[in-house]
Amino acid sequence: xxxxxxALAIGAFGIGxxxxxxxxxxxxxxxxxxxxxxxxxxLVTGYALxxxxxxxxxxxxxxxxxxxxxxxxxxxxxxxxxLLSALAPAYTIMLLGRVVxxxxxxxFFGIGSVVAADMVAPxxxxxxxxxxxxxxxxxxxVGVPLGTLIGxxxxxxxxxxxxxxLGVVGLLGVAxxxxxxxxxxxxxxxxxxxxxxxxxxxxxxAMTVLGFGGVFAAITYIAPMMTxxxxxxxxxxxxxxxxxxxxxxGGNLVGGRYADRALMPMLYVSLGALAVxxxxxxLTAHDKVAAAVTIGLVGALGFATVPPLQKRVLDQAxxxxxxxxxxNIGAFNLxxxxxxxxxxxxxxxxxxxxxxxxxxxxxxxxxxxxxFLSAALEHRGSMPSTVVAGGGTxxxxxxxxx
Length: 402
Prior knowledge:
CATH class of the largest domain: Mainly Alpha
Shape: globular
CATH superfamily of the largest domain: MFS general substrate transporter like domains
Order of helices and strands: HHHHHHHHHHHHHHHHHEEH
CATH topology of the largest domain: Growth Hormone, Chain: A
Low-confidence stretches: 385-402
Number of helices: 18
Helix content: over 70%
Structural class: mainly alpha
Distance between the termini: 49 Å
Oligomer: single chain
Number of strands: 2
Largest sheet: 2 strands, antiparallel
């Protein structure tokens, strides 16, 4: 793999850390600003909404810039947002900093996926995408726990200052290592928007929302689930999340490797297995060892879908994939928000803290159904010819029109 992928992975590491570390220092932030925990929770919600909205907006604004320059601008925006958070004199400035940082998230991963795929041979594209996303997965194993520890011992402002420094390293890495790859000639915003007329692009994004949403239906409520159902101490939740992160690292690498060989079969296996594991989680959540193993599997199977889904979008939006790629990153966050909301509904309805696992299983099954539908439509559209009157052959689509 090109060394440039390391620069993209470092940027992804910083982005992944700032996205999730706020959860570990939320109480400290709320205490310093004198706001309630639910109010401080808007620092999480605001970031997620910023990713969803920022992905298409920032990518569209950068349609006339080279991809390398756009990546550098996005990392600069990321650094600015985290510095605002670290130096914020008031809660509203902190929230503004979170939103500014989030605007870089979707576009960085979307454009970075295109750049990573363009730097390698066609049969290694998913692996290259997985290499970039490895920074995000490793952030959940190293960056988030370390950032939480720093925040609890030295102060949360030091955490965000350190994340800003990571962003500077990522910016310098992109500037030094990523080749200057100009946008394809003749590609304009209207060409990027045209990709959304392709039903296969829309199906891939729907699979992203539902598939990864299934993961977050369970993981969002992992703390109360593990303390109430499995009997873990509160302090153990951090290590359980590390297990989840380790699963993400492994699943990402496996998904990237096998998606280059057989993309759709990889999706069938990972989504099907994810649905089964999430359904079983309602039972294994009551045993400490079984619950810990299941959490690792959920992370692995969930992130095994990421490289193939991202590559699926790139394949189906050939010629103008950048905007579609970025919007698909927003789709991951949309799925997270949807799943968290649905999981909260079943808990509020009195079904217990393990009920979100059933929600997650249902979402994963829905994604699997869409995967089979997508493959069926693709197969139908690729049938080259059919017999027509007179004994000749014609393109199937022409025959249908006739």
